[in-house]
């Protein structure tokens, strides 16, 4: 299978401390790939480096093109999108206006961006709340709006940083179902999660990070059965 996205030997340092050390990973088209790991393993740092928010060493290729030296906006134009842990919505704007801003990169040619109708079909809850201010949404609704807004920009690779953070289990399941739905729409997903149980249920493939490096990788089913993963990440609910 061709590789849509590939990172090779990526290293990120804060001053003298390397928070990510020699990480390599790949995402194939239409696949959900997860990066698991405990607090401080380097997951957020890795995503920020892939998006170009943080400088990094190593190769980052998308569709055969080397993105490693390109600024964030050019990576967005190439089809990358990152939803940070903080979700970063415009709190004093309505759900609908937040969505419209998601298609900002298509200004002047809105027909190329995602449509509000398509987002409302994917997230019916957002349709009910289309005129509500984003800052008044529940945590789960906010995560859904963050995903819908990112999708308005028609990314080919959507990177999510801990979408389950702070959400009740039922809402986590809903968010993960939506992630699985994206596969059917041809969007590849790189999902960073501490909630290994939920992430491995939806992902096709996973990487486990510890101390800044990938210590284990494999098909989700194999990881779910791996003794080290079970003991370290799945043992307690
Ligand atoms: P969490 O799940 O808690 O967000 P993580 O796996 O995403 O953890 P990172 O946030 O990437 O981990 O942090 C990796 C390491 O880098 C940690 O030791 C952290 O303290 C350190 N770190 C993160 N940001 C900075 C920064 N701006 N300056 C210095 N060190 C940092």
Automatic annotation (TrEMBL):
The ABC transporter domain sits at 5-236
Which molecular-function annotation in GO is an example for this chain? Answer: ATP binding
**Which Pfam families does its entry note?**
ABC_tran
Keyword annotations of the record: Amino-acid transport, ATP-binding, Nucleotide-binding, Transport
Superkingdom, natural source: Bacteria
List, alphabetically, the InterPro entries matched: AAA+_ATPase (IPR003593), ABC_transporter-like_ATP-bd (IPR003439), ABC_transporter-like_CS (IPR017871), BCAA_Transport_ATP-bd_LivF (IPR052156), P-loop_NTPase (IPR027417)
State the name under which the record lists this protein: High-affinity branched-chain amino acid transport ATP-binding protein LivF
Taxonomic lineage from the root = Bacteria, Pseudomonadati, Pseudomonadota, Alphaproteobacteria, Hyphomicrobiales
């Amino acid at each position: 299978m061709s590789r849509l996205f590939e990172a090779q030997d990526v290293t990120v340092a804060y001053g003298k401390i390397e928070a990510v050390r020699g990480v390599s990973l790949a995402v194939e088209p239409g696949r959900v790939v997860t990066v698991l790991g405990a607090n401080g393993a380097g997951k957020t740092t890795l995503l920020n480096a892939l998006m170009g928010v943080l400088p990094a060493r190593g190769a980052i290729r998308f569709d055969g093109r080397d993105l490693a030296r390109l600024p964030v906006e050019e990576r967005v134009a190439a089809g990358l999108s990152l939803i940070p842990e903080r979700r970063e919505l415009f709190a004093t704007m309505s759900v609908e206006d937040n969505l419209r801003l998601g298609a900002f990169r298509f200004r002047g040619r809105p027909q190329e961006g995602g449509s509000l109708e398509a987002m409302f079909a994917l997230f019916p809850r957002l349709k009910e709340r289309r005129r509500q201010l984003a800052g008044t949404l529940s945590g789960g609704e906010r995560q859904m709006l963050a995903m819908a807004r990112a999708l308005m920009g028609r990314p080919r690779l959507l990177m999510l940083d801990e979408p389950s953070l702070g959400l009740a289990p039922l809402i986590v399941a809903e968010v993960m179902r939506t992630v699985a739905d994206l596969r059917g729409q041809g969007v590849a997903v790189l999902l960073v999660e501490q909630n290994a149980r939920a992430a491995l249920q939806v992902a096709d493939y996973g990487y486990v990070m510890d101390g800044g490096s990938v210590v284990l990788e494999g098909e989700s089913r194999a990881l779910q059965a791996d003794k080290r993963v079970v003991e370290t990440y799945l043992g307690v609910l």
